Amino acid sequence: MRVGILTGGGDCPGLNAVIRAIVRKGETVHGDELIGFHDAWDGVMEQRFTQLDVASLRGMLPRGGTFLGTRRGSPYDHADGLDRVQEAFREQRLDALIVIGGNGSLTVASKLFDDLGLPIVGVPKTIDNDVVGTDLTFGFNTAVQIATDAIDRLHTTAESHDRVMVVEVMGRHSGWIATHAGIAGGATVILIPERPFDIDEVCEHLRRRHDRGRYASIVVVAEGCEPREGTMQGRDKVYDQFGHVRLGGVAETIANAIEQRTGFETRMVLLGHVQRGGTPTAFDRVLSTRYGVSAIDAVHLSAWGSMVALQCNDIINVPLRETVGRTRGVDMHLYHEVAEVFFG
Ligand code: F6P
């Protein structure tokens, strides 16, 4: 078969490992011809691609980012977008397209399958871990490790100066990174989008800890967390060209509010894109490899309109239609019954 591959949306560690696995099994087991489109859907519409083979992917397993390039946006943003995608399938004699993406790219993949019946298989990626239908997306484990390493470092400087450190991690709609890194890093409070926060409660936790003689505290906040209505002035929203709210910076507002209310010296650290960069953890390399191998197998099973997913440690195929347009929030049992035990 002749199979196309694209990476869409924000990058994350493990993308190259998925591509490598697809190509390895596709070429050596199934005898496929593989091509990689540059810059996500733009590369499909403009028919910009590279021929992929095992030799061309040497050294890709540990490399962060995506060597194919990635973009936001979709064929649905262009009047002739769908025609150009169909044209690419025809002219490139594509038998299948594997879309490696998060909620945005998988929604486009699902729509293209529904609207045009294109032979598409999805692979869930995002450091946010918020794709419905899978227990884990690759990239998440690496981001949690990066955030935890940063929190470990912040503990020692916070203790030396008796400071509160507010650490902002990514997590647009869900607080998976914040919850896991917060638990792993011994945070005093963790704020996530799934549970609007009350700044007075946050200050109460900090005071309680300080009353016990522990001055330094780490507050981990997901970039998408919001104050409970009427408790604190939120920030004005800024949107990007695709209509997504541009996040990043809520830690500053929270740090100022904490310092004003408690008098504790407070600093903020924004980890930002550092969490998406660099080499994937061993865990993510294994998960990416399993996803890649299963994705090319799904192509040979004609499992069109499906996504490979991890459920109870098995890789299965789930219909894209069942996963898109929704967000997988944090397991609130983990938040309330485990993380909260250590608050304050
Ligand atoms: O979707 C993953 C993510 O990392 C979000 O957590 C974050 O809000 C967003 O990407 C930022 O993406 P960019 O700045 O690359 O547009």
Record keyword descriptors for this entry.
single chain; 344 residues; alpha/beta; 7-stranded mixed beta sheet; 4-stranded parallel beta sheet; 11 helices; binds 6-O-phosphono-beta-D-fructofuranose
What secondary-structure arrangement, pairings included, does this model have?
Blueprint: E1 2-7, H1 15-28, E2 33-37, H2 41-45, E3 49-52, H3 81-91, E4 96-101, H4 103-116, E5 120-124, H5 140-161, E6 164-169, H6 176-184, E7 189-191, H7 199-211, E8 217-222, H8 250-262, E9 266-270, H9 282-300, E10 306-311, E11 314-319, H10 320-323, H11 332-338
Parallel strand pairs: 1-2, 1-4, 4-5, 5-10, 6-8, 6-9, 7-8
Antiparallel strand pairs: 2-3, 10-11
What does this structure look like?
- The protein is an alpha/beta fold.
- Helix content is 38%, strand content 17%.
- It is built from eleven helices and eleven strands.
- The protein has helices spanning 15-28, 41-45, 81-91, 103-116, 140-161, 176-184, 199-211, 250-262, 282-300, 320-323, 332-338; strands at residues 2-7, 33-37, 49-52, 96-101, 120-124, 164-169, 189-191, 217-222, 266-270, 306-311, 314-319.
- The strands form two sheets. The chain has a seven-stranded mixed β-sheet, sandwiched between helices.
- Strand 10 (306-311) and strand 11 (314-319) form a beta hairpin.
- Helix 1 crosses helix 9 (282-300) and helix 7 (199-211) packs across helix 8.
- The radius of gyration is 22 Å and the shape is elongated.
- The mean pLDDT is 96.
- Bound molecules: 6-O-phosphono-beta-D-fructofuranose (F6P).
- The site of 6-O-phosphono-beta-D-fructofuranose has 11 residues, from loops.
